[in-house]
Amino acid sequence: xxxxxxxxxxxxxxxxxxxxxxxxxxxxxxxxxxxxxxxxxxxxxxxxxxxxxxxxxxxxxxxxxxxxxxxxxxxxxxxxxxxxxxxxxxxxxxxxxxxxxxxxxxxxxxxxxxxxxxxxxxxxxxxxxxxxxxxxxxxxxxxxxxxxxxxxxxxxxxxxxxxxxxxxxxxxxxxxxxxxxxxxxxxxxxxxxxxxxxxxxxxxxxxxxxxxxxxxxxxxxxxxxxxxxxxxxxxxxxxxxxxxxxxxxxxxxxxxxxxxxxxxxxxxxxxxxxxxxxxxxxxxxxxxxxxxxxxxxxxxxxxxxxxxxxxxxxxxxxxxxxxxxxxxxxxxxxxxxxxxxxxxxxxxxxxxxxxxxxxxxxxxxxxxxxxxxxxxxxxxxxxxxxxxxxxxxxxxxxxxxxxxxxxxxxxxxxxxxxxxxxxxxxxxxxxxxxxxxxxxxxxxxxxxxxxxxxxxxxxxxxxxxxxxxxxxxxxxxxxxx
Length: 481
Ligand code: GLC
Description:
The protein is α/β, with parallel strands linked by helices. 41% of the residues lie in helices and 19% in strands.
């Protein structure tokens, strides 16, 4: 099957979050399946262009209609990828190459990604790479299914399109004039793009895609409710017949405690007790906490964003530190008030709290390995990858039972039996603290059971094999209809 995957980020070239990780592993997992040809298309951001590790071949250029204008687009084919995935970068000095900033956050992001979505379709048509299916991701490529239906049908007569929601919070809103100034779609598509008098690109994708998926089964159901859907609940409910949740995997090659070069000691499920003890001591030293082998080390690696449940952690933090003998370690950057809170907390409890307000993949790996308990109280979580990373490294998760957290962390009882971690159902600080206390109790009083839970978590299969098969089943279903 010929599969084109379109996205605004993909590791290792460019990544701001979980979408980037998925766009590294999913194409690769699909390319491993016999008979598949996989093409991944990404924007040619400045930092990819300037990275000497990424050698490209120029496949030529063409013009893309953006509103009434014609915009230059070049296609750069990546050389040297060994897993069979063909990677093309869309080159545009104006939209990507000359932008000094990060991936997102420019005032004209809507236009940049509208251009990108159209350029992907043009590029495939021009180069005769006509896919059986296109899989596109989040609002940045949400215009693809609409363009496909509205304008590109004759070029891709049998191509089917799947739209995948990684986070419904970001929908690609624009003013109503965007429809005429940038999109230049036939008039009859106005209603499809319209939401409350403005343009909503994700809404259009949900309506026009042949199938819609999201990144866990629970999140797929949650999206029917206003609490989770950020205004799109009825749009989603109307599309329920073509909506499926497929829980992501993680890249088990990169995230492997037995081989991870970032760790001071490597270990597997047979040797994790000594391995993790060595990693814990080194980590405590690295972040400036007292080296205490028997004080439980609670850790968190996260963007410091509201939906990650940081308000709950802020609410319980002092009580936790007064009532329990614990160490707390946070790594991440984000909203300034959270950064300030954790900095302040670390000053107040210098021997017990460390706050690393930075982005550091190596330290992140050492935290997954050196921690005892991993905190992830997200308010909502489409899938979440770091709870899986934590489990793979033998760190016991304490999570809010929502979205992918609910699907990947079945609840253990107070003796650590029957599940993979500790969960709480309703989003409030006391319930979070209570579940964290169950984890601490198990660590302090029933260490053998705690070990058994760690081992069980390490034995899980979080690879992409299963989800990739599920994507293939849905691709086949699309092609039959
Ligand atoms: C988004 C979601 C996260 C998910 C990731 C990959 O970042 O917030 O829950 O794991 O996408 O699908």
